[in-house]
Amino acid sequence: ILAYLINPYVLKLRKRGVPKVISIGICLLVIIYLAIFLVINLIPIIVIQIEELNQNIPIYLNKIQEFIKQIKENVSFIDIDESKLKLEGLKLFSNIGKYINVFFLSPIITLYILSEYDNIIDYIRKKTMRHPYIQGYFNELNQHFLLYFESVILVMGLLSLVSAFLFTLIG
After folding, report:
1. Which end of the chain is more exposed for a tag (fewer CB within 10 A), N or C?
2. Rounded to an integer, what distance in angstroms lies between the CA atom of residue 162 and that of residue 147?
3. CA–centroid distance for 65 within its chain
4. Helical residues (DSSP H) of 16-116, grouped into ranges
5. SS3 at position 127
6. For residue 49, which phi and psi values (nearest 5 degrees)?
7. Distances in Å between the alpha carbon of 158 and those of 40, 42, 89, 152, 154?
8. CA 62, CA 56: separation in Å to the nearest integer?
9. How far is C-alpha 1 from the geometric centre of its chain's CA atoms?
10. Are the beta carbons of 6 and 101 closer than 8 angstroms?
11. Is the pLDDT confidence value at 101 over 80?
């Protein structure tokens, strides 16, 4: 998806005479810069939230235990094992490593796809050349995907700005 989104900017740079490798590098550096900028600005907020969560965990655990006791008292035929609930909570946090892997692998895969984007498109066009209606569908699908991804990123950006503003107002 990242390669698909960056490709129009790579093409614009290439039309201005910038070599392909350099234009890919520039686009990836801009994305990495934006990611670092967001992380730097988000880390203080995340640290504050983690500190508040750390302070409130005993309160939350007590509320959960009280809730489970109330359920046990009101519904005696359901057997609730508290150790299983704790185990499921730990499983949730153990999956964080998978997301970090994706964060580091995505730029590498994007670099490969962008460097071979023209070859991939040419291959698909050669395979569909015998069927002009399939090629027409392919071109139309390509345009719709690009518009879809651009609109999703625009909506996500607007929602994040509005939510950040509202969270700042709320405190």
Report:
1. C
2. 22
3. 34
4. 20-74, 82-94, 96-115
5. helix
6. -65, -40
7. 20, 17, 32, 10, 6
8. 10
9. 10
10. no
11. no
Q: What is the pTM for the complete model shown?
A: 0.38
Model confidence over 34-47: pLDDT tens digits?
A: 888 888 887 888 78
Residue 158 structure tokens: 């607007």
The answer to whether 7 and 117 have CB atoms below 8 angstroms apart is yes
Q: Distance between CA atoms of 107 and 111, rounded to whole angstroms?
A: 6
- Report, as an integer, the average pLDDT of 3-16: 84
Question: Contact, 156 vs 11, CB < 8 A?
Answer: no
Q: Look at residues 106, 67, 102 and name the one whose alpha carbon lies nearest to residue 85.
A: 67
Q: How far apart are CA 135 and CA 143, in angstroms?
A: 12
Predicted local confidence at residue 159, as pLDDT: 83
pLDDT (tens digit per residue) in 46-91: 788 888 877 887 887 788 778 777 777 776 655 656 666 566 666 6
Structure tokens belonging to residue 121: 């498109």
Q: Tell me, what DSSP letter sits at residue 78? A: S
Per-residue CA distances from 123 to 41, 118, 152 (Å): 42, 9, 28
Q: Provide φ and ψ at 16, rounded to 5°.
A: -85, 5
